[in-house]
Amino acid sequence: MKFAIVANPEKYAVKDPLELVIKWSIDHDAPLYLCEKLSNLITDSHSAELHFCTNDEQAIDEGDMIIAIGGDGTMLYTSRLAKNTQKPLLGINSGRLGFMAKTPKSEIEQALGNILDGNYRLDRRYMLQAADPEGQTYHALNEFLFSKKDSTSMITVQAEYQDMLINRYWSDGLIVASPTGSTAYNLSSLGPIVMPDTNVMVLTPINPHTLTTRPLVLSSDSPLKITVEKQPSQVLFSYDGNISDIDDYPLEVEIQRSNFYIDLVELPGHNYFETMREKLMWGMDYRKDNS
Description:
Blueprint: E1 3-7, H1 15-27, E2 32-35, E3 50-53, H2 56-62, E4 65-70, H3 72-82, E5 89-93, H4 108-116, E6 121-131, E7 137-140, E8 143-149, E9 155-161, E10 164-171, E11 173-177, H5 185-188, E12 200-206, E13 216-219, E14 224-228, E15 234-239, E16 242-245, E17 251-266, H6 272-280
Parallel strand pairs: 1-2, 1-4, 2-3, 4-5
Antiparallel strand pairs: 6-7, 6-17, 8-11, 8-15, 9-10, 9-14, 11-12, 12-13, 14-17, 15-16
């Protein structure tokens, strides 16, 4: 099996986990394809198993499976590059929380051994798609965000669904999250946690002016229409952290589930609720440690 490596050394401490992956690949004659920008992190870059590519896209094209080393930001970046390849993605966590990059450095050799033996399953995560009237499309594994820029003033964002007005939100912003993104910014904004394989999207206002305004769960089979009119405060539109200033008003996009998806590698002993318990510390009582 050939592996493609994607990592961002400027953002995460990737040297140690990268060298563990390389050592394993040499021991098991598994070719690795990685961007040449990572070569200065490698002590011995002359192994026959290492193949350097001009960019991450080329590395992904060459590999049978993708290994992303970093945090969930690296996973989102890799997902955008790999969304039409249908190649499985393993996340090795060298960041912080890591809902998608779940494999710790201590389990790298065991994880790769399981993959080589075929001892894993695939957890399919569908993306959301936003399309504007001009036919421009954007894809997000986590969320689309409409937010204010450099202002203390709230913004107004209108949402419609199946030709029905939901609300004109007056708030700091509006999140449209996928099930995968429900544990990201949506969770920080008091939105609900949604099982990844659920065919829904979550509409969550950020600090709404009206306290009774609450998050809303909608089927992602029908498009959610978001409209942003010209207003005193500048509005930003972003998809998985990729920010775009809105220059032409009104901004209109229709959001629903995309046909693109990412298959995350799920290893033995790992599952969604185990991740929730670990990352969100469900069921932990620190009073017992202090008694």
